[in-house]
Amino acid sequence: MPYTLTLPEVGETVTEGTIEKWLKAPGDKVAKYEPIVEVNTDKVNVELPSPVSGTVVEILVAEGETVPIGAELCTIDQVPGETPAEIAPAAPSEEPKPPKEPSAAAPRERADRGGPRRATPRVRRVAEELGVDLVGVEGSGPGGRILEEDVRTFAQGAPAAVPKASADEETVPVSGIRRTIARRMSESAFTAPHAWLVVEADVTELVKLRADEREAFRERTGVDLTYLPFAAHAVSRALPDHPYLNASWAEDQILLKKRVNLGMAVATERGLLVPVIKDADRLSVAGLARAMSELGEKARNKKLQLDDVQGGTFTLDNTGAFGSIVSMPIVNLGQAAIISLEAITRRATVMEDGAIAVRNIVNLCLSFDHRILDGHQAGAFLGDVKSRLEAFGPGSDLD
Q1: How many CB atoms lie within 10 A of CB 198?
Q2: What tens digit of pLDDT does each residue of 120-134 get?
Q3: Distance between CA atoms of 277 and 281, rounded to whole angstroms?
Q4: Hey, which of 40, 64, 384, 386 would disulfide with 176, CB 3.0 to 4.6 Å?
Q5: Has residue 360 got a pLDDT over 60?
Q6: Contacts for 213 with CB less than 8 Å, ≥ 6 apart
Q7: Chain-centre distance of CA 298, in angstroms?
Q8: Model pTM?
């Protein structure tokens, strides 16, 4: 009897996963522990190894489809007498996989699944609630996938519009991680009432410190000394004094987090990832620089493990790396706020004694969930971070 591979538990808060890429097609041989499918969760991409050796018989979930934990993914004609292994998902390998024909891993229609396989469980639930038979719905998503708006449009009696690319346009399939980002950002933006503050910090002395220490720091640690670990140090040291910034909304209660686990936004070719520096408030500037370098490399090389992206309590974004001077980031789901470090610019500034001097100024932009805290708490936190950044200067201890 064929072995049925299901989507395993991949994290305590993960309830579903999106099939990013099948690494095997029907008829392919697969060895025990060999990666068989790449799955994207709202935490990270992982490769799922095969628990058995054998031949892939049938792919049950199409690439791009989102399914709940426990869903059947494929069937494998396993080697007789072999005991299936209990294994956890592994981080994706950076070794390139041989290309597959798009149709090779396409799922076949299954009468016992009650309809087309071109819709996510959520879309099927919406269709059931509206009394819509998906057989008659034309999908406008990638590969003809049925989207929620297609179902709602069909229920209203109008045919769903299918966008067509003209000679002046190019269609780009939406990746699993892009869909996850879109879903989570939309959910955060429409669930949490966002408010926003910005303050200016004079980091002239910090700029001097970095110039003095950069070469020696690189020789000593092998890591480039950027401004980001200084911002991370200021933020993580300030958070324990402002507990409502390090919190989450739980409807009838607010959860104040005891640990400071700092998420850092990392731009990759696949999209934005947010690995987490655990207990960031216990690390020095040098320790934060090393942690950021390591996690950044893992993110860009698809080496992140689930533990690397779990447990974040606050997020730091480095939009200044792209030259931005003001931004309005969206709060990560399950957190109270996110801060962005903008580009440092030289400006003519009026000093306290009335003199005009050229100083290095940076904007610190904070978006926060107004359900959890108010402006005076956010302002006090930003003021604390500003003071800590401005306190760095030549002679400051990095270790």
Answers
A1: 16
A2: 667 777 787 788 888
A3: 9
A4: 40
A5: yes
A6: 225, 398
A7: 14
A8: 0.70
Cα angle, residue 317 at apex, residues 215 and 359 outer, rounded to 5°: 55
Q: What is the pLDDT of residues 194-212, one digit of tens each?
A: 999 999 999 999 999 999 9
122: which 2 tokens? 């959520």
3-state secondary structure 14-76: CCEEEEEEECCCCCCEECCCCEEEEEECCCCEEEEECCCCEEEEEECCCCCCEEECCCEEEEE
Strand order in the sheet with 29-30: 3-6, 72-78, 54-59, 29-30
Token pair for 29: 């041989």
Catalytic annotation, pick one of 28, 77, 212, 370: 370
Domains in the chain with CATH codes: 3-108 (2.40.50.100), 115-166 (4.10.320.10), 181-390 (3.30.559.10)
Based on its alpha-carbon atoms, the radius of gyration of the chain, rounded to whole angstroms, reads 25
| Mean pLDDT of the region 55-60 | 93
pLDDT confidence of 171, banded at 50, 70, 90?
Answer: confident
Answer yes or no: 374 catalytic.
yes
Cβ neighbours of 310 (radius 10 Å) = 17
Q: Which one from 374, 376, 384, 399 is the annotated catalytic residue? A: 374
